[in-house]
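Collaborator request, handled under Task 6.
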Amino acid sequence: MSLPNVICVVGSSNTDMVVKAEKLPSPGETVIGEVFLMNPGGKGANQAVAAARLDGNVVLAAKVGNDVFGKQAIQQFKREKINPMYITIDSEHPSGVALINVDAKGENCISVAPGSNSRLMPHDVELILDGLNLSDIVLLQLEIPLKTVDFVIRSSFEKGLRVILNPAPAQELPVDLFRCLYLITPNETEAEILTGIRVTDMQTVRQAAEAIRAKGVPNVIITLGSKGAFLHTDTISTLIPAPPVTAVDTTAAGDCFNGALAVALAENSTLEQAIAFACKAAAICVTRMGAQTSLPHRREVNSLPLINPVIS
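Structure tokens returned to the collaborator:
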């Protein structure tokens, strides 16, 4: 029996320090919180753990400090059955840390001190790419140096690999990099930064998706939070709704979506099927506090019913 396709995640690993309060603080304001949590996080690590809990065959390339946070992160990856072979130890810089405020509606604001994440260089990830096959998937975000993201995307494209870019945190990207992607997954804010189009309704969602496709990406998914996700390709324009839930913390919802999406695509699902699966996973995620602590397992996602897409 052949091994399942590999999901190669290249990205960040952080420790999240979370305070939940009634509201998010305004500039200069101190808000008394209700709950404090310290959890493993980082967009790369979150997506890797999300994929692993959904039965993906995951390898992760990341960099952590030679400190207690870094050691805890590596132990966590092992517990999640993620291959830690390509985790690099940085002896000069601390592990990344994120400070997260969450309000009563589940909305959040996040400040990140990247630490060793900002030292993940192209030479740190060359070996992981060499071991991949054409059917494997590469998943990236933007919490590591852009030159490393650029190297991984172009190298993967040259090898014929499918590359998924979650362009978060949002920033401008080299125009010729888009043609090397198989799929890009911005949220509304990130789509606006990439296109200059403010996403406010389905008409502007479509316009933003068309503008991104015009840059050279064949497949565009714009995630819309509780509304679901909009898929735009050369043959499909459709909204895949998300299951209705009561959100308590949206931290890592996008990471959960992307990890689940990669799992479904690695299992040869169609894009529509993969998005429906990812929407279910993210819906479960937002009903729980924390980043990796909120990520669901496969049996939980399978228990939710599918919601039919909305052709638009």
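The cover message to the collaborator said: "Residues 17 and 38 are 5 Å apart (CA to CA). The first strand starts at residue 6 and ends at 10. Please let us know whether this matches your experimental observations."
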